[in-house]
Design goal:
Blueprint (H helix, E strand, L loop, with lengths): L3 E5 L5 H12 L2 E4 H10 L3 H10 L7 H14 L6 E4 L5 H13 L6 E6 L2 H15 L6 H15 L2 H7 L3 E5 L4 H16 L1
Parallel strand pairs: 1-3, 1-4, 2-3, 4-5
Helix pairs in contact: 1-9, 2-3, 4-5, 6-7
Bound molecules: adenosine-5'-diphosphate.
Length: about 190
Amino acid sequence: MLNIVIFGAPGSGKGTQSELIIEKYGLHHISTGEILRDEIEKRTTLGLIADEYISQGQLVPDQLIIDMFADILDRTSNGKGYIFDGFPRTISQAEALDQMLRERNTSVVAVFSLSVEEQELIHRLLKRGEESGRSDDNLETIQNRLDVYRAQTEPLKEYYKKKGKLFKIKGIGSVEDIFEGIMDTIDRLIK
Ligand code: ADP
């Protein structure tokens, strides 16, 4: 199975690149951010709790996310593989993911880390906020999300680097050029 993690700061282009990867390789997309926004819209118990954290730019607590994620993994058939977008975001989540995949006799094959400088991230997120009206795409929340990313999520790079699974991709340039870099690596890995 081709299981890929798409990794990067808020606004780094994870969702955009995920769509291209799915289309080309037929993977199943799991975006924890999208699932949470859906839960919020439906006003479920999880959604109501998650909303409090998301609107402040904080992470939703690990155990809630891990349980939600395990549930989705159980409900999807694992065809060619998955693309994990926005998960894992903490070391605990990464360890839980490893464990869940191990139980299913599979593992993460590659982690693509999209690097984009902070000014550009802020610019992109403010623009997205204007267009999509996402409640967390305003300047104060964006700043919090970037701080949280640096403190809690960025250490995952080292976690995956040690396992030899980290591939750094420059996240600036045209969407197609960035995708090209990802494709080159995937094609090498599946050969
Ligand atoms: P972005 O990458 O732009 O922040 P996402 O849609 O991936 O967008 O996530 C939006 C918000 O949802 C995050 O700021 C966080 O509050 C919450 N969230 C998403 N995934 C996770 C996760 N794996 N762990 C904890 N919180 C999460």
